[in-house]
Design goal:
Multidrug-efflux Transporter Regulator, Chain: A, Domain 2; 3 strands; single chain; 11% strand; 3 helices; alpha+beta
Length: 97
């Protein structure tokens, strides 16, 4: 029987838990919306917003593995939400100059 010395690191390390957490800013960025918009949907109890895993320093956080972007996008479309607009795109419509 072979044993591993105690100072040998594991062969399959656990992923860093801090990289597996999404904040409001991170989730909003993935969804292509502003953090304030996401906070508004959280406060309103919108169905397509996944339940947060908890709170850190007063802010909602989600486990990256719990967030299904395809399901969120499908639910937003069925509720008549607009498609996310790229943040660097110019606003559409007549200009007020």
């Amino acid at each position: 029987m072979t044993t591993t010395p105690p100072d040998t690191p594991p062969t399959d390390p656990c992923p860093d838990p801090l990289t597996q957490v999404l904040t409001v800013d991170g989730l909003a960025d993935l969804l292509g919306i502003r953090p304030a918009t996401l906070r508004g949907h959280i406060a309103a109890g919108t169905d397509w917003v996944p339940a947060p895993a908890g709170r850190i320093n007063g802010g909602h956080v989600w486990r990256r593995s719990d967030v299904d972007l395809d399901a969120i996008t499908a639910a937003r479309r069925t509720q008549g939400q607009r498609r996310p607009r790229p943040r660097d795109a110019a606003p559409s419509g007549p200009s007020s100059s």
